[in-house]
Amino acid sequence: MNDSRRSARLVILISGRGSNMRSIVEAAQQGQLAVDIAAVISNRPGAAGLEFAQQAGIDTQVIDHKQFASREVFDTAMAEAIDVYQPDYVILAGFMRILTADFVAHYAGRLINIHPSLLPKFKGLHTHERAIEAGESEHGASVHFVTAELDDGPVILQAKVPVLPGDDADTLAARVLEQEHLLYPAAIQKLVSQQTE
User: Fold this and answer.
1) Annotated catalytic sites, by residue?
2) Burial 10-24 (b: 16+ CB within 10 A, else e)
3) Closest to 155 (Cα-Cα) out of 171, 144, 166
């Protein structure tokens, strides 16, 4: 079969265990996601997700933000490392750094994040506690394009979960995370499908 379409190339950025990165890698390995994961890059040398990526045969790099004098210099180093791989999309999967406007602009339309709320509700941190305190009946996660304003870019796909009586932040977070692991690969596949149409 002669198929001239190529897989979309991803670079995934992580800071910790990389559970969303893992769900994307596994979806690709199982043929559910038509992507080539070119690299996984972390800003933390001890990020647990790096070992998983290495075992999956993916290039990994560490660019330790503590080694840089400013956010701008760090972001420049990150962009240089990412651009070697010429990705179609840069995927933030638990990457715990606020990115500079220049970095975001450099990847405009290609920088994707997952946020644990039904945006535009509950931007920022502590989303599960805030959803419970607000008396919400449903909560969830959103995959969105990254713009210069925090958690504000256009939403690609969302997943909803009920907020149950007796929920605390931990139980609600666990229910949302289960959905995140399904949502992120699905949202990326939606983007990739639109790209090849």
Assistant:
1) 115
2) bbbbbbbbbbbbbbb
3) 144
With cut-offs at 50, 70 and 90, classify the pLDDT of residue 6: confident
Which pair of structure tokens corresponds to residue 149?
A: 């304003």
Rounded to 5 degrees, what angle do the CA atoms 7, 183, 155 make?
A: 90
Backbone angles phi and psi of 90, in degrees to 5: -110, 120
Flag the least confident range among 154-163, 167-176, 186-195.
186-195
E strands, 106-179, where? 111-115, 138-145, 155-162
Answer yes or no: is pLDDT of 2 > 50.
no
pTM strictly above 0.85: yes
Residues 6+ apart with CB under 8 A from 158: 118, 119, 140, 141, 142, 143, 183
Helix (H, G, I), strand (E, B) or coil at 196: helix
Reference 52, options 82, 8, 28, 21; nearest CA is 21
Contacts of 4 (CB under 8 A, 6+ apart): none
Whether the per-residue pLDDT at 176 is higher than 90: the answer is yes
